[in-house]
Amino acid sequence: MKISKIVLYDEPTVPEIQLEKIREFISNALNIEVEVKGNFFESIDHDMCKKIATTRIFDLKNPFKVHTPSTEEIQIETQNKDMSNRKEMTLYDGFELQNIISKHIPSIENTLHIILTNKLTATFDQNDFRYHARSLISSNPTIISTAGIIEAPAKPKQYYLDLMTNFSENRVEEVMKKYKGEFLEYHDPRLYEILEGYVLQAILYYKTGEAFCDKKECRLFNAHWQKDLFYSQIENKKICKHHQEIINDFNN
Ligand SMILES: [Zn+2]
């Protein structure tokens, strides 16, 4: 796909994104025009809020079924609150959400829209027949879920074991404290560096149709573990030869 412009939509409830820095990174790396816009969900009307609320998932073990939203659920969509301090995260079907958003995005030729959101997106996997949280829903528009980046790549194995064997009332807080720093938390300042990698992945995926990189030493690596995410995007922070070549002739 030819891309001559990229539009990034901000998620103001997650200031750690630092979208202006990401804009600079992308426009320098790819030598392309990148426009930053405000929150996509700010200007949507009641009807669209209602449609978005229909994509909520309540049953992780069955394929998508349109949800009939309550007044309160529609209300939540109109407010776009900070979701990070909610005890229970709401899951949204990523493809359904993407489909609804796509009808409200101006389709300008060769422009890729990337929407950042604090909504936790998930997709149904036909292989193990259940929903999984996803950070990235590729297409145009692409959706990048900041909650997905935090929730989808797995934390250390020992974290889950500790959680299972700790029976105190504050077990989640206690175990999280023990492993602090080993995985992303909400309002983590490392988020923007990691997001640079995700935005780059989204663009190259749309451009080439080629799946992510299988080398951990590349920012296009699709990390399944939080520790790999830190390695690819922060510690190593490089791009493999193959992907560097693609980036080099991005618009040739
Ligand atoms: Zn690579």
TrEMBL record:
It holds the Pfam family DUF6775. InterPro entries: DUF6775. It comes from the Archaea. This is Uncharacterized protein.
